[in-house]
Amino acid sequence: AQSVTQPDIHITVSEGASLELRCNYSYGATPYLFWYVQSPGQGLQLLLKYFSGDTLVQGIKGFEAEFKRSQSSFNLRKPSVHWSDAAEYFCAVGGGRGSTLGRLYFGRGTQLTVWP
Amino acid sequence: NAGVTQTPKFRVLKTGQSMTLLCAQDMNHEYMYWYRQDPGMGLRLIHYSVGEGTTAKGEVPDGYNVSRLKKQNFLLGLESAAPSQTSVYFCASRKPGSILNQPQHFGDGTRLSIL
Fold first, then answer.
1. The dihedral of CA A22, A31, B108, B39: what is its sign?
2. Distance, CA of A69 to chain centre
3. Can you name the residues that pair with A76 across neighbouring β-strands?
4. What parts of chain B have a pLDDT lower than 70?
5. Dist. CA A105–CA A107, nearest whole Å
């Protein structure tokens, strides 16, 4: 069965501090992995994606994510958080037979608060 | 660039009322999706469509119907609204092909409250 676990519902960091958002997945095929960001009142924007190759992937807005197959994890990181990064972040998995249909399975999200 | 446009943005209904949510995309995308987003549960797929005139059920289709009469529009209907359908509804669209190369584009959502 496919599932995505984001264990942290809410994270608070100070501006300029580093950030790591956790994501663990369970998927029956080789996974395609994604991180999306949702700002208040807006839809989801794709931050980065991963399927194969270098396990450290770079995305937009200075974010990166590391894929660890042994841990079934795809954690999102940013070295220095800006106040504008305050948003909700979703990890998602897809692929295998569902890849052409584009079906994604989302985690419950992590709300990020940034203190000035 | 409009992208994916959802109307209305907000709506309050009474139990038993019906309504239709409209999703319109101007990117000539074949595939379209309807999700609902509930607190602590992320996004769940309600229905999707891989082309004009075709629809299919997702994870949580009960209580909803959809239609794709025109390629650019994907309608989500609630025939008899229930409080359990209070949620934020998102529409997305994409081109055919691998989701890695053709990611989903999302609208800004419709916030629906059922009293």
1. negative
2. 15
3. A21, A65
4. 1
5. 7
A window 1-60, beta carbon within 8 A of B: 4, 6, 9, 32, 34, 41-46, 49, 51
Residue A60, SS3? helix
Q: In this complex, do A103 and B45 lie within 8 Å of one another by their Cβ atoms? A: yes
Q: Give yes or no for B96 touching A (CB within 8 A).
A: yes
Residues in chain B within 8 Å Cβ distance of A103: 45, 48, 58, 99
Contacts of A109 in chain B (CB under 8 A): 40, 42
What are A4-55's pLDDT values in tens digits? 999 999 999 999 999 999 999 998 777 899 999 999 888 899 999 998 888 9
Residues making up chain A, counted from first to last: 116
What's the distance, Cα to Cα, between the start and end of chain B in Å?
A: 35
The closest alpha carbon to A103, from B41, B56, B67, B99, belongs to B99
Chain A: nearest CA to B59, how far in angstroms?
Answer: 10
Beta partners for residue B54, in sequence order: B51
pLDDT at A98: 54
